[in-house]
């Protein structure tokens, strides 16, 4: 027996190592080890309990009681009907959608009975079983362990650290029961300091004093005078500002304005003055494209340099002059600071005043309601005989609008389209003359798109 001589190959490079080195035994070992890991642990390392299974279930048929046997017999068909065959229509196969679904359900039930379920269905059944067990273990008392009236923050202590920012804490607790949405600061501010129910004017009482009643009437009269004055001003600057002219005069003015610049208006002027167009039209002399020589270009550059030097010198002089203007600059800065301070004070005062006034919540501005009053002759001093004034619901609505809770609105009326009324042609009194006569008349002959009547011949 001759032993095959081993080839000697140079293994200088990586390619040679990969090509000529024998690693089959190592690959076989690793493949076997991977296969064992996929199946489970290595068989040598497994215990007897893991390898063998003790079957304790018996295969003997269960002994049924008399009652259970009768229950099974009730489900079977009667002996008197067992000889009859089933009707033909019961054996007919139907391919409706409902029957197909029912067949699928039956197939699934059979698969469940045989325990041949899909892996996903087996996993879902396991998950539901685990969830049900967890629910049973959880006691009902655990739901009411938390104190409803506790004011302390019940978040985790590690989140209460000074190193954790508020935004990070909110991001961690998002989606949990402990998450609390941070409301904006503006929701905690009071928008107005006006009371919900303002005390009415003392002159509105059912038995006011003479001075209070007169003061109320004076306030209402001043308000009305102010409104009348505004209306008069608007009338003066709009209607009374323009003079009234007749329709004919207005038409003449319009024609005169529209005909300005038209050729027929300038006929007389053109006939009198004749323009001589024989000479040159332009007043300026003709321009010659003459190039600058070297001397002119040199002088131009010198002028540019001189202008630049003068500009720099002017800037330097201004800098020197600014040093001597330090006092003026200081006084100017002080004046600006004083101006800003006074402006800030005015703004703070205005801001304080605005708290007592309603804000602009919607497109419509809030309007103060008219003051309710009773004339002297209607004052009785008794609530039974008193004449009612105002509306309680309207008063509450205006209060809500004034406190910026409700948006001020106005009643909008729906515009209805105007219906044009006319009499139908068949319902007119002269229908015999107009409708019936037109139908009885013969239609005229059309020749070369012209109506030929008796008059044309």
UniProtKB/TrEMBL annotation:
<comment type="similarity">
    <text>Belongs to the NOP53 family.</text>
</comment>
<protein>
    <recommendedName>
        <fullName>Ribosome biogenesis protein NOP53</fullName>
    </recommendedName>
</protein>
<dbReference type="GO" id="GO:0006364">
    <property type="term" value="P:rRNA processing"/>
</dbReference>
<dbReference type="Pfam" id="PF07767">
    <property type="entry name" value="Nop53"/>
</dbReference>
<feature type="region of interest" description="Disordered">
    <location>
        <begin position="261"/>
        <end position="303"/>
    </location>
</feature>
<keyword id="KW-0175">Coiled coil</keyword>
<dbReference type="GO" id="GO:0005730">
    <property type="term" value="C:nucleolus"/>
</dbReference>
<dbReference type="GO" id="GO:0005654">
    <property type="term" value="C:nucleoplasm"/>
</dbReference>
<dbReference type="GO" id="GO:0008097">
    <property type="term" value="F:5S rRNA binding"/>
</dbReference>
<keyword id="KW-0690">Ribosome biogenesis</keyword>
<keyword id="KW-0539">Nucleus</keyword>
<feature type="compositionally biased region" description="Basic residues">
    <location>
        <begin position="292"/>
        <end position="303"/>
    </location>
</feature>
<dbReference type="InterPro" id="IPR011687">
    <property type="entry name" value="Nop53/GLTSCR2"/>
</dbReference>
<feature type="coiled-coil region">
    <location>
        <begin position="213"/>
        <end position="240"/>
    </location>
</feature>
<dbReference type="GO" id="GO:0000027">
    <property type="term" value="P:ribosomal large subunit assembly"/>
</dbReference>
<comment type="function">
    <text>May play a role in ribosome biogenesis.</text>
</comment>
